[in-house]
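The freezer alarm interrupted the setup, so I double-checked each line after restarting. Inputs confirmed:
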Amino acid sequence: MKNKLLFIMVLILALISIQIAVFADMDAPSVKPYTATISVVDGADYYRYVYDETLKESRLEKDGKLKYGDTITIHYEQEIEDELYGHYYLDEEYASSAYYVKISDIKVLEEKQIELSKNSSKVGTKSVVLQDGVELYKGPAYGYEKEGTVLKKGTEIELYNDNENAGNPWFFAKTSNGSGWICILNGTVGIKDAYDEYSEKDKEIISGKEVKVYKDTTYTKVIGKIPANTKIENYLEIDDWSWGLYVEHNGVSGYVRHEDYATNMTWLEESMEYIVDYPAKIYKEADLRSEVLVDELPLETKLEATYAVNTKMITWIYVTYNGVSGWLFNVDELLSEGETYQDILDRELEYYELEEDSTEIEDIEDEVASDEKIENENVVNKDLQNDEVVANEADATLYSISGTQIVLICIGFAVVLALTVFVTIILVNKKQK
Amino acid sequence: MIINDLPFIMINCLFFTIVIEIIFAIILKVKDKKDILNILLVNVMTNPIVVSLPVFVNIRYGLMQRNIIVIILEIITVLIEGKIYSKYLKFKKINPYILSLILNLCSYIIGDIIKYINF
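Predicted 3D structure, all chains:
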């Protein structure tokens, strides 16, 4: 009996472990879950993502309606096509995929302001609002009511990270006009020393190559460029999701992408000594294609390196020799057996060609994708025109069954199955008798 | 839950309900193969309705009504299964309605544990 029980326990544990599913859907930054109620008298539509085989993309589609007064728990908030949506589970017990409801259709049950918890810490040494019209809220989500304070670009604020609300882009802001919760997504707020609040001096950064400055964190519109070898003191860190920096240089203020500053900008806290042990050159920029300032450094030359940039393949260090400052690349870590300095140069040059090709390929792929999309739309439209069965809108829904209809079909099937099995039970037991 | 997944959820629930109830039936010393078959068939009869109907109620009327329906359906299920067990099961050591209650409770609780662990 004991062995049987043990076996059964092991079997149940095995069954339980098979059930472990990945908690999906982390596209949108999470919020501290909050309970909200549907505030629209006629009810609120809810949506889900549907994959369109023809267009090869997912799109949000209406799936049903929640009634006025229905309560749901919002776990994520996401902006989709300029509309804010809250993500919730239709049935919390089966929580596995997202349903979406418009934030404008819900009202948080908690009416008073959510206070900053005792388990909180100030973020950075300085925080600045980087966009006009940033609003404060009564709680750490867009579903809460607005507190009433609207901040202008350039406003300095005190930002606090509520550790009980960690991992999402909502922080508590204290300003001269009031306090409340602020969302720092999309580079709304820039923070000085966000990750090094105990630093005693501001670290300046330098650009190894020309770096583009963008208007916003979509990184689509270039508003300026920072030349190579520019030292920048005025920069702020922005949210992790936008992944970039906010910089000010020569009257241009904007955002730099993470991939640009991670590979083309750098800072060093302490200088280091470097001894030349190969026929090295000093370049104007951290790029082999740039002008050579010093053609060949004598071996054993000692240099002081003040900055280091890691590009895709190699590390560049910023040095000064006989009054000339520029970039030298560090091959020490890269030389494998049998490789020469020239081999590394060739590899880096090959990489530059690949980089240029991949940019071309991406452009071509985008064009092809766009053409295919147009072609597919034409095919679908043509089919619809030629198809005599699709006479009206009701018939067109054959192509998409609503969620409610699927549930009703399942219930119908379950009822038929129940009746069939009931008859089967009777027959099976009757035979035996 | 994606509504499109409901058929798969129903199959999943049915499978685990059958497995759990048969295991516990064996623990309770239900040995006859015919009795095991009846337990299996009875669950195939009741489980899909118990899983699918609350989903519809939730969409139409909300979570609270859905929970009420689940309780009502579970009570009805226990009674129907108990009736069938009393009529056809050879196993008489335990009252058939009590047996039905025990088996349904076990599958319900273990199902909840599985969901809790997952999420």
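Quick read of the result. Chain B has a mean pLDDT of 87.
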